[in-house]
Amino acid sequence: MGVLKKFEQRLEGLVNGTFAKVFKSEVQPVEIAGALQRECDNNATIWNRDRTVVPNDFIVELSTPDFERLSPYSGQLGDELAGMVRDYAKQQRYTFMGPIKVNLEKADDLDTGLYRVRSRTLASSADQQGAAPAAPSGRPGQGAPGGYGYPPAAPAGAPPMPSAPPPGARPGYPQPAAQRPAAAPASGGRTRYWIEINGTRHQISRPTLVLGRSTDADVRIDDPGVSRRHCEIRTGTPSTIQDLGSTNGIVVDGQHTTRATLRDGSRIVVGSSTIIYRQAEG
């Protein structure tokens, strides 16, 4: 069972229907949970072969109407979201430098149904020993290592990391995935393609791969929100994904779409299942 599905079930199982009104709001808690997962993926920093660090301090900005609906449950919802991030990190083998916190804030510039996630890495006292000083509590100023949208300060002996976003990025926010420079492919060898569905790896050994709930699909996804023939991945330069007329559609890197170009690490959501597209040389 996927992390998001477990998160939904935990919310539904809370006593006295605490979240009954929450699910009527324009922004659903599971949407925020998915955004936090993407925030971890998009800001993962590899320090060495055995350690990939992701943010542990999150702010979810909501429109005024959504904030008013969710704020009475912000403490309990924040705890549940933090637990979901912890479960997802364990699944992806991510690590944190400190305790996980998720807070809700009101943003006057957002319309109902829209939200924005900001994150930073705050080191615990153990990780701060021998490292550059972590940013203080609150919202650090532009260019501060460890600030929202910035990578954490590196520990002693680690390669230096940028303390400010590259050109074109909004100050205080992570650089959009589309603006990030692609990793240089290894020279020689054949490109390998695979997908990871809720943590399970499936090799792509043919030019096209059909995903769906039907037993006739190349990769079967046992999810009631997935159509019998939901979507198709075509490998190549570039690789693409195409919706096959599914009922619930596809979301690629946070965008609802019918067709999209895939890059290594692209995140695809079908039903309540999460698919990570991977490709590598050699």
From TrEMBL:
UniProt lists compositionally biased (Pro residues) regions at: 152-169
- Sequence ranges of Gly residues compositional bias: 140-149
Looking up InterPro entries in the UniProt record yields: Cell_Proc_Reg/RNA_Proc, FHA_dom, FhaA_N, FhaA_N_sf, SMAD_FHA_dom_sf
State where composition is biased (Low complexity). 123-139, 170-188
Q: Per the database record, which ranges form the FHA domain?
A: 209-257
Q: Tell me, what's a Pfam family for it? A: FhaA_N
Highest taxon, organism lineage: Bacteria
Q: What is this protein called?
A: Phosphopeptide-binding protein
Q: SMART domains of this UniProt entry?
A: FHA
Region feature (Disordered): 121-188
Source organism (scientific name): Streptomyces cellostaticus
Which UniProt key words apply to this protein?
Answer: Phosphoprotein
